[in-house]
Specification:
The chain is an alpha+beta fold. The protein has two domains: 200 residues, Bira Bifunctional Protein, Domain 2 (BirA Bifunctional Protein, domain 2), CATH 3.30.930.10; 88 residues, Ferrodoxin-fold anticodon-binding domain (Alpha-Beta Plaits), CATH 3.30.70.380. It is built from eight helices and 16 strands. The chain has a seven-stranded mixed beta sheet with strand order 1-5-8-12-11-10-9, with helices on both faces. Strands 14-15-13-16 form a four-stranded antiparallel beta sheet, covered by helices on one side. Strands 2-4-3 form a three-stranded antiparallel beta sheet. Strand 9 and strand 10 form a beta hairpin. Helix 1 crosses helix 4.
Length: 308
């Protein structure tokens, strides 16, 4: 299982880091991680220095320290992960060593082709890495939800998400909290995430069974809606999937637009929906009827405006 996780992250273009398991008490307090958020720190009796006085609660502590060292030496892009343990005591005083996957992005992607510099990393890069990892492990996108993570203290409350599989939180992704970024003296946003591998393993199938290729073509229809700025794009995806219509094969977000003619305080979200019948090719009338039913459900469920 761990080897599959490692191979998937390397395929995303990330470098594996192995950092020390010791940290200082201030960093341990700032960066408990997802796996260590409910654990009390374990202090060393005879530390060699104040910088190594406690066992880390999360591998994120080591990754952020490594990031600062790389940035100080002129690195324009850092994309790294670590598969390691956090350490702490639970509410009953028992020592715990949860295994975690921590990932970190900073700067701009390396230049591609004739570009002088690559695009800056953002939340969608981080989310894409997480989604691809889960898909590689056999966890379908219909089982995964991305929820606001406002209660997780070490990430930005407006730029982060809890990762849920079958309704159970297994990790968090997002921007490092600005106060921590400032305290660490790092320029620019730091994007990071952590998954509890022990919790995730319960939802990963032992074998990934191949599916036969569809015999009949899909019919796609696009939908664009204008919603409030604070509207979560995933709500429409979840609502369409909740129909559990066998003829609705997939839905994905492909555009988010702000600016004229969209009013201020609003944004436009565009989705594409694929319809496919298992036993025949859908006619245009059948696809239009299915699409109309989806639009009717969305307009009755949410406060939105359809873009024509």
């Amino acid at each position: 299982f761990v080897q599959r996780v490692r191979a998937a992250l390397v395929a995303e273009g990330l470098a594996e880091m192995v950092t020390v398991s010791l940290t200082d008490d201030v960093t341990n307090q700032r960066l408990p991680g997802f796996v260590g958020r409910a654990l009390a720190p374990i202090a060393l009796r005879n530390p060699l220095s104040s910088e190594s006085s406690e066992l880390r609660r999360s591998p994120l502590a080591g990754l952020v320290r490594a990031l600062r060292l790389n940035v100080d030496r002129g690195a324009e892009f850092v994309g790294a992960f670590e598969l390691g343990k956090g350490y702490g005591r639970d509410a009953d005083g028992r020592a715990r060593e949860p295994l975690a996957m921590a990932v970190l992005l900073h700067g701009a992607w390396p230049a591609r082709g004739v570009e002088r510099s690559g695009p800056p990393v953002d939340f969608l890069d981080l989310k894409g890495i997480g989604a691809n990892l889960l898909a590689t492990l056999g966890v379908g996108e219909d089982r995964v939800a991305w929820r606001p993570a406002g209660e997780v203290g070490f990430v930005h409350p407006g730029k982060s998400a809890l990762v849920e599989v079958d309704g159970t939180p297994v990790g968090v992704v997002g921007a490092l909290h600005p106060e921590i970024v400032q305290a660490c003296d790092i320029a620019g946003e730091v994007w990071l995430g952590e998954l509890d591998l022990a919790a995730l393993a319960h939802y990963v199938p032992r074998r990934v069974a191949p599916k036969p290729l569809p015999r009949f073509p899909a019919v796609t229809r696009d939908i664009a809606v204008i919603v409030d700025e604070g509207f979560r794009a995933g709500e429409i995806i979840e609502e369409v999937r909740a129909r559990r219509d066998l003829n609705i094969e997939s839905i994905r977000l492909f555009d988010c637009y702000r600016g004229a003619p969209v009013p201020s305080g609003k944004k436009s979200l565009a989705y594409t929906i694929a319809y496919r019948a298992p036993d025949r090719t859908l006619t245009d009338d059948e696809a239009n009827a299915l699409h109309a039913a989806v639009l009717e459900r969305l307009t009755s469920r949410f406060q939105l405006e359809l873009r024509r």
